[in-house]
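wait is this the right file?? whatever heres the structure
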């Protein structure tokens, strides 16, 4: 079962399942997410298809390159491919696990994939299920009882817990990487907005979006101002900070307020959608905010999840005993984002049919 959100190419092109050749349907695939470099991939690999969905490139790349094609993707995604030519099943997940994905093994030898655990838990035909690991792809060939996971996202800071980088930070490269990541995520054929808390990460993303939106050729409403949203209890410092940033940048700013009673009332629904008791406190306001944003007609959001983990922004990082331990803690937290902040951002908003686009690039790994 697939429910399409329709962010890019919202017409019938993007309806799933997708096929490399819709006549033979020999390579069939479904994708959850966004492929930001799909146009560049079409040109580089000579992908000719009347289907203009960004996800369409996945099947064509698989036929050209096999499972290793995932290394050329820039995006957030989870996909499953059925290759009827030889009976192969191939699945993969983005480098940080921005898109949720779970894998289950049936008692009859079948393999199942889902973006939610709740679809797997109570099925009597399932023997076991687990998180599909980020930065991996899975292949099961015809006749095999078990498939095999392969790590495709393999920078040393991920694969070696003792690794300490020696290269000095290049701030110019860092700036360019962040700007390009945000610009890539302005790819949308539907109205979108920015989550603005008033902190450094969300303020930077909002600033980049405001500065570059009018120049983008693949963004909805390029000539219109950026809308920003913040939430809190009335009088909260974050609301004050967000308003200052919004005024300075000239966004159309929306403040959303909630009461403690509203937060408590939302708890059961929040836990149901999160499928975990982690991150519940931070998820409640995001869930309430997403409800308001959906009512305003927006389907996609820019957000800065992961910045504190990448750059050691939490207060306790100030107590790091050494720069080596500082790095190790950043790496530990970043590689677990799929169970914490990224999971919270995705599921709190997707509960209302909104996609959060998180600005991390897989091609900037050291």
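ok assuming it is, sequence goes like this
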């Amino acid at each position: 079962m697939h429910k399409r959100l329709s962010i890019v190419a919202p017409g019938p092109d993007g309806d799933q399942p997708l096929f490399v050749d819709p006549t033979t349907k020999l390579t069939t695939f479904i994708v959850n997410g966004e492929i930001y470099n799909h146009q560049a991939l079409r040109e580089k690999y000579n992908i000719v298809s009347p289907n203009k969905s960004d996800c369409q490139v996945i099947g064509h790349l698989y036929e050209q390159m096999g499972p290793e094609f995932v290394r050329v993707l820039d995006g957030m995604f989870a996909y499953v491919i059925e290759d009827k030519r030889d009976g192969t099943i191939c699945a993969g997940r983005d480098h940080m696990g921005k898109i949720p994905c779970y894998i289950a093994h049936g008692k009859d030898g079948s393999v199942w994939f889902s973006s939610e655990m709740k679809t797997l838990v109570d099925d009597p035909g399932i023997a076991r299920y687990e998180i599909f690991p980020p930065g991996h792809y899975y292949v099961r060939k015809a006749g095999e009882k078990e498939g095999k996971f392969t790590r495709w996202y393999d920078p040393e800071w991920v694969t070696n817990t003792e690794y300490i980088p020696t290269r000095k930070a290049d701030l110019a490269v860092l700036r360019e990487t962040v700007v390009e990541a945000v610009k890539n995520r302005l790819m949308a054929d539907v109205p979108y907005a920015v989550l603005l808390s008033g902190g450094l990460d969300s303020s930077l993303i909002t600033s980049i979006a405001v500065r570059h939106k009018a120049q983008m050729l693949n963004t909805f409403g390029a000539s219109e101002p950026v809308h920003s949203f913040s939430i809190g209890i009335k009088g909260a410092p974050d609301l004050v900070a967000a308003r200052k940033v919004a005024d300075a940048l000239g966004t159309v700013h929306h403040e959303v307020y909630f009461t403690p009673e509203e937060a408590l009332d939302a708890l059961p629904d929040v836990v149901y959608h999160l499928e975990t008791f982690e991150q519940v406190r931070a998820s409640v306001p995001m869930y309430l905010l997403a409800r308001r944003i959906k009512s305003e007609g927006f389907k996609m959001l820019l957000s800065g999840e992961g910045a504190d983990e990448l750059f050691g922004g939490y207060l306790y990082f100030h107590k790091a005993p050494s720069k080596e331990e500082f790095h190790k803690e950043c790496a530990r937290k970043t590689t677990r984002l799929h169970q914490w902040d990224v999971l919270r951002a995705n599921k709190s908003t997707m509960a209302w049919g909104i996609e959060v686009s998180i600005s991390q690039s897989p091609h900037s790994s050291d």
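The domain at 160-358 is CATH 3.40.50.620 (Rossmann fold). so i think its the right one actually
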